[in-house]
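TASK: fixed-backbone design
INPUT:
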């Protein structure tokens, strides 16, 4: 589904991502881990169009996307969340979802002015899809609640829902469990697992190793912008270079 070849981005003399080869298969939940500053969020920014690579390629479903604008990447079928929550706090849950859906609306100013049948059909289809999202995350009763009034864990889930509203085929989750308590993290784990059942491919950056090891099919490990390991969770847990660079023996022992 996604293929990065010899991907590199330099900031001054520093290579934040250094000649990286990286692939994701359709239907996969892939973990991306590494120490702080290893290049994880930079890779997200490259894939989602926030950064333009210095060199190398990014191909999504057979089409090059490196250097495209963020809105073009979203329309191509990739959506993301961020480390820091970026909801519209003074808008309701429903309104935040409508913002996420906007990139899929195709009607013209004429359709808006005259409420054409095409516009009514499109709006009805959008409402149905967003209602399904509310049901999937058990948030139907919160549709009119302001985003800023939601508990922290639900704000995190709403950000995922807003990304899903754009109908991505690849969903990038940047530290979705950051700041969550154990109960919220367990609930999030179940929600991410349900995403696969809904047909999504997921790339997740996360520091909670228990979550990563429990939900991911494969894990890629970065250090100083380079890939140092890739494989199934159990392989990663026992990889000497990964243990030295990031995981630590206590994670291996807790498996």
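OUTPUT:
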């Amino acid at each position: 589904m996604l293929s990065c070849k010899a991907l590199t981005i330099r900031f001054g003399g520093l290579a934040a991502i250094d000649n990286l080869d990286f692939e994701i298969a359709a239907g996969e939940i892939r973990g991306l881990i590494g120490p702080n500053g290893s290049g994880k969020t930079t890779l997200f920014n490259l894939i989602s169009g926030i950064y333009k690579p210095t060199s190398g390629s990014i191909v999504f479903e057979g089409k090059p996307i490196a250097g495209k604008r963020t809105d073009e990447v979203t329309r191509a079928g990739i959506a993301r969340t961020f480390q820091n929550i970026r909801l519209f706090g003074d808008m309701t849950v429903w309104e935040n979802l409508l913002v996420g859906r906007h990139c899929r609306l195709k009607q013209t100013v004429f359709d808006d002015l005259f409420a054409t049948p095409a516009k009514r059909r499109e709006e009805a289809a959008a409402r149905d899809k967003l209602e399904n999202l509310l049901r999937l995350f058990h948030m139907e009763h919160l549709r009119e609640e302001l985003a800023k009034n939601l508990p922290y864990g639900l704000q995190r889930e709403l950000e995922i829902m807003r990304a899903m509203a754009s109908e991505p085929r690849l969903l990038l989750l940047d530290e979705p469990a950051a700041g969550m308590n154990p109960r919220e993290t367990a609930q999030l784990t179940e929600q991410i697992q349900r995403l696969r059942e809904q047909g999504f491919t997921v790339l997740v950056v996360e520091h909670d190793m228990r979550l990563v090891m429990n939900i991911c099919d494969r894990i890629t490990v970065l250090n100083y912008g380079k890939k140092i390991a890739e494989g199934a969770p159990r392989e990663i847990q026992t990889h000497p270079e990964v243990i030295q660079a990031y995981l630590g023996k206590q994670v291996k022992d807790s498996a």
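COMMENT: The chain is about 40% helix and 25% strand.
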